[in-house]
Amino acid sequence: MDLTQTLGRILSLYLLTSGVAFIVATQFYLRLTQRADRSDLMAVNISGMVHLLVGFGVLVTHFEWGGVAEVLVTLLGVFFTLRGISYYWIPQLVLRPAEQGRGSAQGLRVLGAAFIGYGAVLGYSSFFG
Q1: Which residues make Cβ contacts (< 8 Å) with residue 44, sequence separation at least 6?
Q2: Cα 80 versus chain centre, distance
Q3: What are the φ and ψ backbone dihedral angles of 44, each rounded to 5 degrees?
Q4: What keywords are annotated for this sequence in UniProt (predicted)?
Q5: R_g (Cα) of the chain, nearest Å
Q6: Residue 67 has what DSSP assignment?
Q7: 109 and 24 in contact (C-beta within 8 Å)?
Q8: What is the C-alpha separation between 32 and 4, in angstroms, rounded?
Q9: pTM listed for this prediction
Q10: DSSP 60
Q11: pLDDT tens per residue across span 49-106
């Protein structure tokens, strides 16, 4: 099994799990986003660190743009890296309270569906492609 398949399988399972969670436990994640500006600062730092480690790990080991799975895996590396950088460089924007236009239940469900769609395409191309 090559690296694209391995990373694609892991990341697709992550996306599918997260997507289902956003849909099934919408109210929990809605409360979480509404209270983002009151998050523990150490938890914010750890979240940024985890995002950076995943993103850098993907980009350092897999920066390929050939097939569908390769592109999707590399893009996830880019997205994780950008998210991690944003936690470090502009935490005040990442942690804006929901009253400033973020955190709707419908938005979380749409995000969950997008995660499921991305995870399904990546999973299919990684497990069966």
Answers
A1: 87, 91, 94, 95
A2: 6
A3: -65, -45
A4: Membrane, Transmembrane, Transmembrane helix
A5: 15
A6: S
A7: no
A8: 33
A9: 0.88
A10: H
A11: 999 999 999 999 999 999 999 999 999 999 999 999 998 998 877 777 545 555 688 9
Tokens of 56: 């850098």
Q: What one-character DSSP code corresponds to residue 124?
A: H
Instruction: Give phi and psi for 128, each to the nearest 5.
Output: -120, -10
* Residue (of 50, 38, 53) closest to 92 by Cα position: 38
Domain with 112 in it: 3-128
Burial of 112 from C-beta contacts in 10 A (0-12 / 13-18 / 19+): buried
Q: Please name the amino acid found at residue 28.
A: F
CB-CB neighbours of 128 under 10 Å:
6
Token readout for 57 is 């790990």
- Tokens read off for 105: 């239940």
Any idea what the Cα angle at residue 68 is, between residues 62 and 70, rounded to 5°? 5
CA dihedral defined by 12, 87, 107, 54, rounded to 10 degrees? Answer: 0
Residue type, position 94, single letter: V
